[in-house]
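Sample A.
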Amino acid sequence: MKIDRIRGTCSPGSLIWAGTQRTKKAKRFRKYLALIGRRESISITTLAQAMPVSVHKACDDLQDMLDSGILETGYLDMSTGRLILSDEGLQEEAPPAPEPDEPEPEEDVLDMNDDDAVLGEIRRLNDDIDDPVMSQKIDRIGEITGKIFAYQKQSPNRAGQLRSFLSYYLPTTLKILRAYARMEEQGVEGENIRSAKARIEGMMDKVVEGFEKQLDKLFQDDAMDIATDVQVLERMLEKDGLSGGGMTLGG
């Protein structure tokens, strides 16, 4: 009976020790709250170092705070080692986005208004293409293109006449010649390559003719102006007796 009474009795020392422990825990909890502040997420290791306590001790303290309601919402995410203070629940890591396919390298886009670059590209293609007949026609295309650029510099106010030539005909011609050069360098004459090359070779006369007509068309207004000037000059000469056999000295 005496033993039972001793076991059922709490000594004053034990009560003081328990109260001290509660006071220490309350102080730790207040410090945790101060360190957490308004954050919705914080590293447990960071909290442990700031307290300072071990990470294991910090986990125990934080779980006690969650269980007792001191921290109203949240959980310990041990996969990331963080205290999450949010009511959104566990966030699954989003699957990694598929890596985008690497774009195929694009050919350098020529500025069709850069005459040096365009004429240089025509010369390069001519050097790459071995067929002598094609080379002769490319020479002619380069010659006419150079004259068209020269006209553009001399008469910038008529640039609108070259809009279709610079935006479609010239770049498309260069694209076709690049394709021809690539097929020629393969060193084989399969059916597809042979038919494609023949198609390009067959249209080159029309391309050259089109470039020549474009150059001639640029001088259409000049030709009309010249015709008008000649007609006026002839009339003035005739009026003043300065044409034909009727011209005399001294009136």
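Sample B, a different protein:
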Amino acid sequence: MMEHDYVFFGKDIRDATEKGLTALNLPQEAVDIEILEEGRRGFLGALGSRPAKVKLTVRAPYALLTFIEAWIKRTGLVLQVEASIRDNTLDLTLEGADAPYLVGKHGNTIRSLRYLFLTVSRQNGWHLELELDVAGYFKRRRGMLIQLAREKAEKVKKTGLSVRLMPMKADERRLVHLALQNDPDVETYSVGVDPARYVVIRKKQARPSSGRKR
């Protein structure tokens, strides 16, 4: 397991904390601070003095981000990291000269990288959500799928015939379902077994009314 608890000393709590943040190169919101020793001034400022002692625990998204940045450096890949952290979610995009090589067919290499990074997180006890994209692949893919879903929905409305989409990964099928869930005229459902599972779009079926007819 990787270390993510660090102890620092200083003349007071603030000094110890600032030294720790500087050493870790992290903002204060990236850590939880535990005061281990308040510290005290000695007689005439020296005799009997005791330094303050704090423990800084790097929060999960920042810990994983630090690992990924170190991993990129070790591999020698030419990549730039664009990261944002909200609550306990790390939203990460990798760009740069080597980014296209990490996409893979249908984004499979990106999915493998995400699985690797989440495995590291679990092994270290970092509980978080990770959104990973490389060279904007998933952003473009999501836009294309949403547009495709809406176009096929319009076709269903005009013809009355159901439309079967190509097989998709689970996250992509979910995106199609969400894109059309508020459309009053069509409905979606999935058919088959992965990796051949696909989405069907059809005209919304009338629901049988409950209770007696009047």
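Observation for Sample B: The helical segments are 13-24, 60-75, 108-123, 137-159, 170-180.
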